[in-house]
Design a protein that fits this description.
Chain lengths: ~290, ~180
């Protein structure tokens, strides 16, 4: 049985608890034990805007907290994954580590360099594996066509992920989707960013960015988009209606987080275990295909 | 700064007297920005940038060139430097391994110190000092978690507050010309 410190980040626990719910259910199903560390804080990715040093300190603080419990970190958010993994990469340099630790000592923490960070999808891919997932599938999802969306920080910077993925030609989410029996479609705007990290600065910019992907998918036969980051979810899931109102569009694409799709395949209860009714775009259309 | 600003201040000829010859070295002095000298302006960064595609005025190649020319004030006061979506395509694809994403962060840090930080990022810092995360603990979020039997949200985060104070970013003021 594997054991990880669960890193929730800022957005999932506050605004997308259904992602957390489904992730906890899936991990429990596969015997992955998740430990909650109350003192975890923001991963630091947004503080980087004002101070690279502040961002690194926040990230390292989290790493040190997990290290003190002798646990590796399991993340749900792509951006937290990227920020923490990048920090680990930077902290390999002793001078950088010493400088950061000097400040961390003021809050009684020290980072030694013995902690790993992996996104839940990566843990499922590497620890559980595609074959094992396939064997556990109980629901037939074969009629289900979905558009994978990876999330930038799940893939990049490549140097922070030990060669786990190919950022310009990613495959792990495709494989994880296939393992559930659903069909991952190919589409031109696969690599497009959700824009979530610029949303607090310019909503309009994000809306024009999002429409490129949504327009692309409007022309495809697709039941849902499947993604693996709550910020991508908040953009594609919760901004569609706003875009419809502001730009006269008619988007109505259901969005699922990967653990929800996997949960459906494993026979989880869509409401109690996966929180599907909490989604802004009703996934009822999908559920009729499942049951 | 909600609407992307489409009026550009960069259309006039560049006046040498307004350039700051030290700007480039000031930027490159930061370890995260050292690669800038290797840039040969091929434009791969801009070609792969999703923000540039949606909003052409945001142009990584142009910003890199402006830094190298010493256009200090124009770069640091530009609203565009805050438009990066942090997708990392620019550094991922750069044939010279220039990490434009990191260079941009260095520029944003400098701009923030000079009073150009967007209010949203300043607000988030204040929030982190209170809850440890970038959001407040809203009552309906707390209730929703209870209903789903999820662990309660943390509040008071003394360590985060201390860390932020140590870096001094709690002193940064938001830009005045924005919303």
């Amino acid at each position: 049985m594997s054991k990880y410190a669960l890193f929730l980040g800022c957005t999932t626990p506050t605004q997308v608890p259904q992602y957390e719910l489904a992730s906890r259910w899936v991990c429990k199903y596969f015997g992955i034990e998740l430990i909650d560390i109350k003192e975890f804080v923001c991963c630091g990715i947004n503080q980087v805007n004002l101070s690279i040093e502040a961002g690194l300190l926040m990230a390292t603080m989290n790493l040190a907290l997990a290290e003190a419990e002798e646990l590796d970190i399991l993340t749900l958010c792509a951006a937290c994954t990227g920020a923490l993994a990048e920090a680990i990469e930077k902290l390999k340099d002793k001078a950088t580590r010493d400088k950061v630790n000097e400040k961390l000592r003021e809050v009684d923490l020290e980072y030694k360099g013995n902690v790993g960070v992996r996104h839940i999808s990566r843990v499922l891919y590497e620890d559980i594996g595609i074959e094992k997932i396939k064997k556990e599938v109980k629901q037939d999802l074969s009629g289900f066509r979905v558009a994978p969306h990876y999330g930038c920080h799940y893939l990049k910077p490549k140097s922070a992920f030990e060669g786990f993925e190919e950022p310009d030609n990613p495959h792990t989410l495709h494989e994880l989707i296939s393992a559930t029996g659903a069909h991952p479609i190919e589409y031109e705007t696969l690599g497009f960013c959700c824009g979530g990290k610029v949303f607090p600065v310019s909503k309009d910019l994000v809306h024009s960015l999002m429409q490129k992907k949504l327009d692309d998918l409007m022309n495809k036969e697709v039941d849902a988009m499947v993604l693996q980051c709550q910020t991508c979810y908040l953009m594609y899931g919760e901004q569609q209606k706003e875009i419809n109102e502001e730009y006269g569009k008619q988007y109505n694409l259901p969005i699922l987080l990967y653990p929800q799709l996997l949960g459906l395949a494993l026979g989880a209860d869509p409401t109690e275990d996966l929180g599907l009714p909490l989604h802004a775009i009703s996934p009822d259309k999908i559920l009729t295909k499942v049951t | 700064m909600s609407k992307p600003e489409r009026t550009s201040g960069f259309k006039e000829p560049v006046s040498i007297s307004e350039l700051d010859p030290n700007f480039r070295s000031e930027v490159i002095a930061h370890p995260d920005a050292q690669g800038l000298n290797a840039c040969f302006s091929c434009g791969t960064c801009s070609a792969g940038c999703p923000i540039h595609e949606a909003f052409p005025e945001y142009n990584p190649k142009k910003l890199a060139k402006m830094v190298r020319l010493g256009m200090r004030k124009q770069v640091l006061s530009s609203p565009y430097i805050w438009y990066c979506a942090t997708c990392h395509n620019c550094e991922q694809r750069c044939p010279q391994n220039v990490k434009f994403f990191n260079i941009l962060n260095v520029l944003k840090n400098m701009a923030a110190k000079e009073g150009y930080a967007p209010p949203a990022w300043v607000e988030q810092t204040k929030q982190v000092m209170k809850t440890g995360i970038v959001f407040p603990t809203e009552a309906n979020w707390v209730k929703k978690r209870e209903k789903l039997s999820l662990p309660s949200l943390k509040e008071d985060q003394k360590k985060a507050k201390k860390i932020i104070e140590l870096t001094g970013i709690d002193k940064i003021k938001p830009r005045i010309d924005s919303e």
